[in-house]
Design a protein that fits this description.
By secondary structure, the chain is mostly helical. The protein is 70% helix and 1% strand. The protein is globular and about 45 Å long. The two termini are 22 Å apart.
Length: 292
């Protein structure tokens, strides 16, 4: 099986779970429509796939943690809905489609995001196949990464830094928290739910940090080098908003080198896992070559 087949297969499994989970309509119907519009708008499902890959690298069966992996996608989707709002990044396109607030209005978009964030923890708590102790530890990891010590802090810093001269410490704070935190948590959650040892958890943490940052560095590069069609959103949107990015601070070639170094560090971190980490290694190598 090559990586594309693996990613497509895991994506199909995650989307099948999400489709089944949301098959019962929610009232009011406009809220139901708005949430599903963004959940099923496409995307790589990278965070749930990484969570499953980590769980399986630790000896588990990915089918056992679909509620927890799916919850990661709900949180990611909520963050995109809110990021696109006029008060935040004010974007009109996401994954090649009009953003949520363009279709449903700002109020419903905000509530759709709120609903997904809250429902994520309801979804996450459903499990008969992992221990309650592991589940509680994983929820703690997730809430930290998604909240004040992760995504929320990163987004806040991103907003207040627009238009300012790029600084290394501020840039790293934004990317460590806004993007890398949830990706790192996805890996950690996989290990926690598998009740793996501390050494393996640390390896997954370091891997998650490396690939999480590399993913965002590549995103920054693609905003400059990609096309609107490839990206599913306007090319150059970061530059037009005067955001702090790696290319703005280091240039394209140096940014590519940084991404490669981060992936190399991630691969080094999981070297002790051997063949069990095969798909994690493949995913890390893919991140620097992607075009969207």
């Amino acid at each position: 099986m090559d990586l594309k087949v693996y990613l497509d297969d895991k994506k199909r499994i995650v989307e099948g779970f999400l489709s089944e989970y949301f098959k019962t309509p929610i009232q009011p119907s406009v809220l139901d429509d708005a949430m599903k519009y963004s959940i099923f708008a496409g995307g790589k499902r990278l965070r749930p796939v990484l969570c499953i890959a980590a769980y399986e690298a630790c000896g588990g069966n990915g089918q056992d943690i679909l509620p927890q992996a799916g919850a990661l996608e709900l949180i990611h989707t909520y963050s995109l809905i809110h990021d696109d709002l006029p008060a935040m990044d004010d974007d009109d396109l996401r994954r090649g489609k009009p953003t949520n607030h363009k279709v449903y209005g700002e109020a419903i978009a905000i509530l759709a995001g709120d609903g997904l964030l809250t429902e994520a923890f309801h979804m996450f708590s459903h499990s008969s196949r992992v221990s309650v102790v592991a589940l509680l530890a994983a929820i703690k990891e997730l809430s930290s990464a998604a909240g004040l010590y992760g995504m929320v802090a990163g987004q806040a810093m991103d907003i207040i830094s627009e238009g300012k001269v790029a600084q290394i410490d501020t840039l790293e704070f934004i990317h460590h928290n806004k993007t890398a935190a949830l990706i790192r948590a996805a890996l950690m959650i996989g290990g926690i739910l598998a009740e793996t040892d501390e050494q393996t958890l640390e390896a997954l943490r370091r891997y998650g940090q490396g690939v999480g940052l590399a993913f965002q560095v590549v995103d920054d590069i693609l905003d400059v080098t990609g096309t609107t069609e490839e990206l599913g959103k306007p090319k150059g949107s970061d530059d037009s908003k005067h955001k702090m990015t790696y290319p703005a601070l280091y240039g394209i070639e140096r940014s590519r080198s940084i991404a490669a170094d981060l992936v190399a560090a991630a691969l080094d971190a999981i070297q002790p896992l051997g063949d069990k980490a095969f798909w994690l290694k493949e995913i890390a190598n893919y991140l620097t070559k992607r075009t969207n």
